[in-house]
Give the backbone structure.
Amino acid sequence: MASLDTELQTASLLARQAGALLLEVYATDFAVVDKAGGQGPVTEADHRANALLLERLRHHFPGDGVVAEETKDTSDARRFSRCWYVDPMDGTREFVRRNGEFAVHVGLAVDGEARLGVVYRPVGDRLYAGVVGEGCWLEAEGARKLLRVQDTGEGAPRLVVSRSHRTVSSPVLREQLGVGAVRESGSVGLKAGLIAEGEADIYVHTSPQSYRWDACAPEALLRAAGGVFTDLAGKPYSYDGSELQNLRGLLAGTPWAHAAVLPRVSALAPGLAKR
Protein backbone atom coordinates (compact mmCIF):
# COMPACT_ATOMS: atom_id res chain seq x y z
CA MET A 1 0.00 0.00 0.00
CA ALA A 2 1.48 3.33 -1.08
CA SER A 3 2.61 5.77 1.61
CA LEU A 4 0.44 8.82 2.19
CA ASP A 5 3.13 10.87 3.95
CA THR A 6 3.06 13.68 1.38
CA GLU A 7 -0.73 13.82 1.45
CA LEU A 8 -0.79 13.94 5.25
CA GLN A 9 1.79 16.71 5.47
CA THR A 10 -0.02 18.75 2.84
CA ALA A 11 -3.45 18.21 4.38
CA SER A 12 -2.13 19.26 7.79
CA LEU A 13 -0.60 22.42 6.36
CA LEU A 14 -3.77 23.33 4.45
CA ALA A 15 -5.97 22.66 7.48
CA ARG A 16 -3.85 25.08 9.50
CA GLN A 17 -4.04 27.69 6.73
CA ALA A 18 -7.81 27.35 6.55
CA GLY A 19 -7.97 27.56 10.33
CA ALA A 20 -6.03 30.80 10.34
CA LEU A 21 -8.53 32.20 7.86
CA LEU A 22 -11.42 31.12 10.09
CA LEU A 23 -9.86 32.95 13.01
CA GLU A 24 -9.55 36.13 10.94
CA VAL A 25 -13.30 36.16 10.40
CA TYR A 26 -13.98 34.95 13.96
CA ALA A 27 -12.40 38.15 15.27
CA THR A 28 -14.85 40.32 13.31
CA ASP A 29 -18.54 41.13 13.54
CA PHE A 30 -19.37 38.60 10.82
CA ALA A 31 -22.78 38.05 9.23
CA VAL A 32 -24.69 34.77 9.47
CA VAL A 33 -26.99 33.37 6.76
CA ASP A 34 -29.27 30.34 7.07
CA LYS A 35 -28.78 27.74 4.35
CA ALA A 36 -31.72 26.66 2.24
CA GLY A 37 -33.53 23.56 3.40
CA GLY A 38 -32.82 24.09 7.08
CA GLN A 39 -29.27 22.83 6.81
CA GLY A 40 -27.94 25.30 9.34
CA PRO A 41 -26.03 28.57 9.27
CA VAL A 42 -23.20 29.59 6.97
CA THR A 43 -20.77 32.48 7.22
CA GLU A 44 -18.13 34.26 5.18
CA ALA A 45 -15.57 32.08 6.97
CA ASP A 46 -17.12 28.86 5.60
CA HIS A 47 -16.97 30.14 2.04
CA ARG A 48 -13.45 31.58 2.24
CA ALA A 49 -11.99 28.45 3.83
CA ASN A 50 -13.85 26.28 1.32
CA ALA A 51 -12.37 28.19 -1.61
CA LEU A 52 -8.86 28.01 -0.16
CA LEU A 53 -8.96 24.26 0.43
CA LEU A 54 -10.57 23.50 -2.92
CA GLU A 55 -8.02 25.53 -4.88
CA ARG A 56 -4.94 24.29 -3.02
CA LEU A 57 -5.90 20.62 -2.94
CA ARG A 58 -6.47 20.71 -6.69
CA HIS A 59 -3.13 22.45 -7.13
CA HIS A 60 -1.18 19.92 -5.05
CA PHE A 61 -3.09 16.83 -6.24
CA PRO A 62 -4.40 17.53 -9.76
CA GLY A 63 -5.20 13.85 -10.32
CA ASP A 64 -7.55 13.64 -7.33
CA GLY A 65 -11.17 14.60 -6.90
CA VAL A 66 -12.34 17.08 -4.29
CA VAL A 67 -15.79 17.24 -2.68
CA ALA A 68 -16.35 20.20 -0.35
CA GLU A 69 -19.39 21.15 1.70
CA GLU A 70 -19.81 24.63 0.25
CA THR A 71 -19.27 23.53 -3.37
CA LYS A 72 -22.39 22.40 -5.24
CA ASP A 73 -20.64 20.13 -7.75
CA THR A 74 -19.97 16.82 -5.98
CA SER A 75 -19.43 14.71 -9.11
CA ASP A 76 -15.73 14.17 -8.30
CA ALA A 77 -16.77 11.56 -5.73
CA ARG A 78 -17.98 9.32 -8.55
CA ARG A 79 -15.24 10.10 -11.06
CA PHE A 80 -12.02 9.64 -9.06
CA SER A 81 -10.63 6.65 -7.16
CA ARG A 82 -8.93 9.12 -4.82
CA CYS A 83 -11.19 11.85 -3.54
CA TRP A 84 -10.72 14.48 -0.84
CA TYR A 85 -13.72 15.22 1.37
CA VAL A 86 -13.54 18.70 2.85
CA ASP A 87 -15.58 20.44 5.50
CA PRO A 88 -14.08 23.92 5.73
CA MET A 89 -15.75 24.45 9.10
CA ASP A 90 -17.48 21.63 10.93
CA GLY A 91 -19.39 23.27 13.75
CA THR A 92 -20.58 26.54 12.24
CA ARG A 93 -23.14 26.85 15.05
CA GLU A 94 -20.27 26.74 17.53
CA PHE A 95 -18.45 29.39 15.50
CA VAL A 96 -21.54 31.61 15.61
CA ARG A 97 -21.88 31.05 19.37
CA ARG A 98 -18.16 31.79 19.77
CA ASN A 99 -17.42 28.80 22.00
CA GLY A 100 -14.38 27.72 19.97
CA GLU A 101 -15.61 24.19 19.24
CA PHE A 102 -15.35 24.23 15.46
CA ALA A 103 -12.84 22.47 13.24
CA VAL A 104 -11.47 22.11 9.72
CA HIS A 105 -11.89 18.61 8.22
CA VAL A 106 -9.62 17.37 5.44
CA GLY A 107 -10.11 13.68 4.62
CA LEU A 108 -8.92 11.48 1.79
CA ALA A 109 -10.84 8.44 0.55
CA VAL A 110 -9.12 5.86 -1.66
CA ASP A 111 -11.24 3.39 -3.62
CA GLY A 112 -14.27 4.35 -1.55
CA GLU A 113 -12.64 3.95 1.86
CA ALA A 114 -11.65 6.71 4.29
CA ARG A 115 -7.86 6.43 4.56
CA LEU A 116 -6.47 9.75 5.82
CA GLY A 117 -7.90 12.34 8.15
CA VAL A 118 -6.89 15.72 9.52
CA VAL A 119 -9.09 17.59 11.99
CA TYR A 120 -7.84 20.99 13.10
CA ARG A 121 -9.29 23.10 15.88
CA PRO A 122 -8.00 26.66 15.36
CA VAL A 123 -9.01 27.84 18.84
CA GLY A 124 -6.34 26.25 21.03
CA ASP A 125 -4.27 25.13 18.01
CA ARG A 126 -5.04 21.39 18.24
CA LEU A 127 -4.47 19.19 15.21
CA TYR A 128 -5.51 15.54 15.04
CA ALA A 129 -4.10 13.54 12.15
CA GLY A 130 -4.05 9.91 11.16
CA VAL A 131 -3.70 7.37 8.38
CA VAL A 132 -5.53 4.06 8.68
CA GLY A 133 -2.99 1.35 9.40
CA GLU A 134 -0.22 3.83 10.18
CA GLY A 135 -1.30 5.54 13.39
CA CYS A 136 -2.88 8.67 14.78
CA TRP A 137 -1.54 11.59 16.78
CA LEU A 138 -2.38 14.94 18.27
CA GLU A 139 -0.23 18.05 17.79
CA ALA A 140 -0.84 20.56 20.58
CA GLU A 141 1.23 22.99 22.66
CA GLY A 142 4.29 22.37 20.49
CA ALA A 143 4.34 18.61 21.06
CA ARG A 144 3.14 15.53 19.21
CA LYS A 145 1.37 12.76 21.12
CA LEU A 146 0.57 9.35 19.66
CA LEU A 147 -3.04 8.29 20.22
CA ARG A 148 -4.44 4.78 20.62
CA VAL A 149 -7.87 3.85 21.94
CA GLN A 150 -8.33 1.21 24.62
CA ASP A 151 -9.36 -2.18 23.27
CA THR A 152 -11.23 -3.07 26.45
CA GLY A 153 -13.08 -1.14 29.11
CA GLU A 154 -15.05 -1.47 32.30
CA GLY A 155 -18.37 0.03 33.31
CA ALA A 156 -20.70 2.13 31.21
CA PRO A 157 -19.12 3.80 28.16
CA ARG A 158 -18.56 7.55 28.41
CA LEU A 159 -20.70 9.31 25.81
CA VAL A 160 -19.77 12.44 23.89
CA VAL A 161 -22.75 14.30 22.42
CA SER A 162 -23.26 17.30 20.21
CA ARG A 163 -23.51 20.62 21.95
CA SER A 164 -25.93 21.89 19.29
CA HIS A 165 -27.81 18.70 18.28
CA ARG A 166 -28.71 17.10 21.61
CA THR A 167 -30.68 14.12 20.30
CA VAL A 168 -29.16 11.56 22.70
CA SER A 169 -28.57 13.69 25.76
CA SER A 170 -31.81 12.94 27.67
CA PRO A 171 -31.42 10.76 30.80
CA VAL A 172 -34.00 8.27 29.53
CA LEU A 173 -32.24 7.76 26.21
CA ARG A 174 -28.85 7.55 27.88
CA GLU A 175 -30.20 4.80 30.15
CA GLN A 176 -31.60 2.94 27.14
CA LEU A 177 -28.20 3.12 25.45
CA GLY A 178 -26.43 1.90 28.56
CA VAL A 179 -23.97 4.78 28.71
CA GLY A 180 -22.54 6.62 31.68
CA ALA A 181 -20.92 10.04 31.92
CA VAL A 182 -21.81 12.51 29.20
CA ARG A 183 -19.60 15.20 27.67
CA GLU A 184 -20.70 17.84 25.18
CA SER A 185 -18.59 18.92 22.22
CA GLY A 186 -19.02 20.63 18.89
CA SER A 187 -17.83 19.15 15.57
CA VAL A 188 -17.85 15.48 14.60
CA GLY A 189 -14.09 15.64 14.21
CA LEU A 190 -13.50 16.97 17.70
CA LYS A 191 -15.70 14.19 19.12
CA ALA A 192 -13.63 11.60 17.25
CA GLY A 193 -10.51 13.28 18.60
CA LEU A 194 -11.79 13.02 22.18
CA ILE A 195 -12.37 9.30 21.70
CA ALA A 196 -8.92 8.85 20.19
CA GLU A 197 -7.44 10.70 23.19
CA GLY A 198 -9.26 8.48 25.66
CA GLU A 199 -11.48 11.29 26.95
CA ALA A 200 -14.68 9.58 25.74
CA ASP A 201 -15.70 6.11 24.55
CA ILE A 202 -18.68 6.47 22.21
CA TYR A 203 -20.44 8.99 19.96
CA VAL A 204 -23.99 8.43 18.71
CA HIS A 205 -25.62 10.58 16.03
CA THR A 206 -29.18 9.43 15.38
CA SER A 207 -30.09 12.02 12.74
CA PRO A 208 -29.67 11.49 8.99
CA GLN A 209 -28.59 15.13 8.68
CA SER A 210 -24.86 14.67 8.21
CA TYR A 211 -22.72 14.09 5.14
CA ARG A 212 -19.54 12.36 4.00
CA TRP A 213 -17.51 15.56 4.41
CA ASP A 214 -18.56 15.52 8.06
CA ALA A 215 -17.41 11.90 8.41
CA CYS A 216 -14.38 11.17 6.20
CA ALA A 217 -11.61 12.85 8.20
CA PRO A 218 -13.04 11.84 11.62
CA GLU A 219 -13.48 8.24 10.49
CA ALA A 220 -9.93 7.98 9.16
CA LEU A 221 -8.28 9.46 12.25
CA LEU A 222 -10.39 7.38 14.66
CA ARG A 223 -9.76 4.15 12.77
CA ALA A 224 -6.07 5.07 12.64
CA ALA A 225 -6.19 5.18 16.45
CA GLY A 226 -7.80 1.73 16.58
CA GLY A 227 -11.40 2.91 16.86
CA VAL A 228 -14.58 1.99 14.96
CA PHE A 229 -16.76 4.27 12.82
CA THR A 230 -19.99 2.95 11.24
CA ASP A 231 -23.64 3.68 10.64
CA LEU A 232 -26.25 2.74 13.27
CA ALA A 233 -26.49 -0.79 11.86
CA GLY A 234 -22.75 -1.30 12.34
CA LYS A 235 -21.99 -1.10 8.62
CA PRO A 236 -19.23 1.06 7.14
CA TYR A 237 -20.05 3.97 4.89
CA SER A 238 -18.64 4.10 1.37
CA TYR A 239 -17.04 7.19 -0.15
CA ASP A 240 -17.47 6.16 -3.79
CA GLY A 241 -20.03 8.89 -4.54
CA SER A 242 -23.04 6.57 -4.64
CA GLU A 243 -24.37 8.37 -1.56
CA LEU A 244 -23.21 11.57 0.12
CA GLN A 245 -25.67 11.90 2.99
CA ASN A 246 -25.15 9.76 6.09
CA LEU A 247 -28.75 8.56 6.04
CA ARG A 248 -28.26 5.85 8.66
CA GLY A 249 -26.71 8.00 11.37
CA LEU A 250 -23.25 7.63 12.89
CA LEU A 251 -21.81 5.42 15.63
CA ALA A 252 -18.17 5.94 16.52
CA GLY A 253 -16.13 4.70 19.44
CA THR A 254 -13.62 2.34 20.95
CA PRO A 255 -14.08 -1.29 19.86
CA TRP A 256 -15.53 -2.38 23.21
CA ALA A 257 -17.88 0.60 23.55
CA HIS A 258 -19.06 0.30 19.94
CA ALA A 259 -19.82 -3.40 20.48
CA ALA A 260 -21.70 -2.62 23.69
CA VAL A 261 -23.85 0.19 22.31
CA LEU A 262 -24.53 -1.11 18.77
CA PRO A 263 -27.34 -3.58 19.63
CA ARG A 264 -29.09 -0.96 21.76
CA VAL A 265 -28.89 1.89 19.27
CA SER A 266 -29.99 -0.38 16.40
CA ALA A 267 -33.07 -1.31 18.43
CA LEU A 268 -33.82 2.31 19.35
CA ALA A 269 -33.54 3.61 15.79
CA PRO A 270 -34.47 0.62 13.57
CA GLY A 271 -35.91 2.75 10.78
CA LEU A 272 -32.78 4.86 10.53
CA ALA A 273 -30.44 1.86 10.72
CA LYS A 274 -32.25 0.13 7.82
CA ARG A 275 -32.40 3.04 5.38
Remarks:
- The chain has a mean pLDDT of 92.
- Residues 149 and 196 are 5 Å apart (CA to CA).
- The two ends are 33 Å apart (CA to CA).
